């Protein structure tokens, strides 16, 4: 094992350090997006005789995408603590503890994965009904998510392994494995959906089955890589024996971050239920706009990974001022890239929608969703702030106060404003009714932008205060 490489990396210029970590993570995030866009592309071309049913499939995939996003929030129960602790131990050059933390992260991932899979398989139908999805769209959504739920433990373990490697300063291995996942996903999803040779395929659920199986392969590949030793980390069986002290330290960081992410995910599902009330056309347009908006969001997530790793390693090396500077550099580069994505949304919104909406029967989705995609461009700086500073604070172990920011943004701004902006009137119960803006999907995205600007400001101020420098994990 090369145990000097992570320490040598801390002496590089900050801009180079950020890019060395962020660019592979960015490619990794975009490979995730390729998987999602491939699924969306397949759904848009899934042939059914009734055009309305075709819109229903897109609506179902939108709701499924939100719930799959919920899975990403669930993985935070393991991934944030993994990156933060491994980075601290690597920064302090305690590689025995770094290896031990990686092993305990995998144990937690398997446990949370199994629990989450059982809960999802039992509760999916009731959850879909609560999200106001009805009829064939609801049935298709449950069928689509079932194989993903059954294979959830593999995806969470895959995420934990990649998080540990990122904490050690290795984002390239995760990129290579996610590249494998993306390359496998496309033929698997197409083949299992439409069939090949004498095999007729499973139809719409074959898309999800292909995605789930590709993550199984990715998980196994990462476990093999860790068992052979990479970036100062080497997985031994002895490190998989539960260590309550280390598990407690992992959860001390991860649980508040997971509460933040999961509460945000619940609020996102609430927000989705408001959008779903607007009908299948609005729901489909919302889902496609989110897929493209991910070009900006995932860029921020990649630079957030770099910020989290560098904060942890520099705090472990007792250089908090350098930790702060590295995050501001990550925000400057990542935020600039996200603003460039915003320009693309403004200029190319309609062509981007038409990629997934071929044919005149889907033109209403384009007309509904393109204005929303253009609108989100104005929130790219705020979204960059929220994502990158949140990741940096989590890397420092400061995950409790930010939960309050998320609750304020969603419950104080996004949700009530979404009701007000989307409907012709809002029923306040015993207080009567108030007139709404009746802006449809565009009104929902106005509420989203207002929330992002509020939270982006709060997270930037929290990081600038420097209180995170004194937190022990």
TrEMBL record:
Subcellular location: Cell membrane
InterPro entries: MATE_fam, MATE_MdtK, MdtK-like
Single GO BP term: monoatomic ion transport
Domain of life: Bacteria
UniProt main location, coarse: membrane
Key word Methyltransferase present: no
GO terms under cellular component: plasma membrane
The keyword Cell membrane appears for this protein: yes
Lipid bilayer topology: Multi-pass membrane protein
Pfam families to which the protein is assigned, alphabetical: MatE (PF01554)
Keywords for the protein's UniProt record, in alphabetical order: Antiport, Cell membrane, Ion transport, Membrane, Transmembrane, Transmembrane helix, Transport
Transmembrane segment boundaries: 66-90, 102-124, 177-197, 203-226, 250-274, 294-315, 327-349, 369-389, 401-422, 442-461
GO MF: antiporter activity; xenobiotic transmembrane transporter activity
Name under which the protein is recorded: Multidrug-efflux transporter
Organism: Gemmata obscuriglobus
């Amino acid at each position: 094992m090369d145990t000097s490489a992570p320490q040598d990396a801390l002496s590089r210029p900050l801009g180079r350090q950020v890019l060395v970590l962020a660019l592979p993570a960015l490619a990794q995030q975009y490979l995730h997006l390729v998987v999602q866009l491939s699924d969306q592309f397949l759904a848009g071309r899934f042939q059914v005789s009734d055009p309305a049913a075709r819109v229903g499939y897109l609506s179902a995939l939108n709701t499924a995408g939100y719930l799959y996003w919920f899975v990403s929030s669930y993985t935070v129960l393991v991934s944030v603590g993994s990156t933060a602790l491994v980075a601290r131990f690597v920064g302090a050059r305690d590689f025995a503890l770094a290896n031990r933390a990686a092993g305990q992260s995998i144990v937690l991932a398997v446990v949370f994965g199994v629990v989450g899979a059982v809960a999802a398989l039992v509760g999916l139908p009731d959850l879909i009904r609560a999200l106001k999805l009805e009829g064939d769209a609801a049935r298709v959504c449950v069928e689509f998510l079932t194989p993903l739920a059954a294979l959830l433990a593999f995806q969470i373990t895959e995420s934990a392994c990649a998080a540990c490697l990122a904490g050690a300063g290795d984002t390239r291995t995760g990129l290579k494995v996610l590249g494998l996942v993306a390359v496998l996903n496309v033929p698997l999803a197409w083949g299992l959906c439409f069939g090949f040779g004498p095999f007729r395929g499973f139809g719409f659920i074959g898309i999800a089955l292909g995605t789930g199986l590709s993550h199984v392969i990715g998980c196994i590949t990462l476990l093999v890589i860790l068992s052979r030793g990479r970036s100062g980390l080497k997985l031994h069986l002895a490190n998989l024996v539960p260590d309550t002290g280390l598990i407690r330290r992992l959860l001390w960081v991860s649980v508040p971050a997971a509460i933040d992410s999961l509460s945000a995910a619940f609020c996102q599902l609430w927000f989705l239920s408001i959008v779903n009330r607007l009908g299948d056309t609005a729901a489909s347009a919302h889902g496609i706009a989110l897929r493209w908006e991910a070009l900006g969001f995932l860029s921020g997530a990649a630079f957030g990974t770099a910020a989290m790793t560098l904060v942890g390693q520099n705090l472990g090396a007792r250089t908090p001022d350098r930790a702060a500077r590295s995050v501001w550099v990550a925000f400057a580069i990542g935020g600039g890239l996200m603003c460039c994505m915003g320009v693309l949304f403004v200029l190319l919104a309609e062509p981007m929608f038409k990629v997934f909406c071929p044919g005149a029967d889907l033109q209403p989705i384009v007309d509904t969703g393109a204005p929303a995609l253009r609108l989100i461009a104005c929130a790219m700086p705020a979204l960059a702030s929220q994502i990158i500073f949140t990741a940096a604070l989590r890397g420092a172990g400061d995950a409790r106060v930010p939960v309050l920011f998320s609750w304020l943004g969603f419950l104080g701004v996004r949700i009530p404003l979404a009701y007000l902006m989307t409907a012709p009137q809002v029923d306040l119960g015993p207080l009567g009714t108030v007139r709404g803006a009746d802006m449809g999907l565009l009104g929902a995205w106005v509420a989203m932008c207002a929330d992002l600007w509020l939270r982006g400001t709060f997270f930037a101020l929290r990081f600038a205060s420097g209180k995170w420098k004194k937190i022990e994990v």
